Amino acid sequence: MLVLSCHQEDTTGVDLASGTLVRARVAWPEDHGPDLAPFDVVEAVLSDEPERDDLAQPEAVTVDGLPRHLGTLHGRPVRRLLRPLAAPVEEHVLGFPGASAPYWEFRGFRPSLALVVPSKGPVLFRRDGDRAVWIRFGWGRSDNWIPVEDPRAERALDVARRDRLSGKDLASALGFKPHYLVASISTPRDGHCYKTIRAVLPRG
Questions:
Q1: Residues contacting 190, CB < 8 A, separation 6+
Q2: What is the pLDDT of residue 188?
Q3: Rounded to 5 degrees, what are φ and ψ at 121?
Q4: Where does the pLDDT of residue 50 fall: very low under 50, low under 70, confident under 90, or very high at 90 and above?
Q5: Tens digit of each residue's pLDDT (9 = 90 or more) over 86-113
Q6: What is the pLDDT, as a whole number, of residue 128?
Q7: What's the CA angle centered on 24, arms 20 and 29, to 5 degrees?
Q8: Quick count: other Cβ atoms within 10 Å of Cβ 14?
Q9: What is the distance of C-alpha 70 from the center of its chain?
Q10: Which burial class, exposed, middle or buried, applies to 32 when counting CB atoms under 10 A from its CB (0-12, 13-18, 19+)?
Q11: Which residues is 101 bridged to in the sheet?
Q12: 7, exposed or middle or buried, with CB in 10 Å at 0-12, 13-18, 19+?
């Protein structure tokens, strides 16, 4: 799998055998948290007893043990893998408006992952009050505001000592020009599943 994001809930990436997006559920031990970086290549063993029937996350697979790091890809091979996976522009990211939807509304017919190429922006910012990190971007005709769960994006604001970054300032703080956003549906929280941006990525 080519890793795109690594989170406590799951590791998102491209299954190199099929070329499809997948979210691997890894049981990270307390003394070894998620530590994979975008564009790492890992080998993971599918569980003999996987979790099943999660209608909010049809791409999810359960992994035995920890993924084994094999190397890292850059440049043209990454671009060749990601280009055909970019989500077609729709009215709403991940198929519904707003930041969340009740878990019971999910039927397993729509994806819980999307590789989004913004048509405008993005703008990374901290909200007043709770200081949570969010991102704003255009996608087709829609204006999207989604929370961010990418530690590198959060660090970019800290490094720049800014609460809002866009354009060249954002690229400088990240160390690359943002091209892809990995949009994801979270596991249920208080009966709702939330849209999140799990990774801000370069073109490759």
A1: none
A2: 87
A3: 85, -150
A4: low
A5: 999 998 999 888 889 999 888 888 899 9
A6: 92
A7: 160
A8: 22
A9: 21
A10: exposed
A11: 193
A12: buried
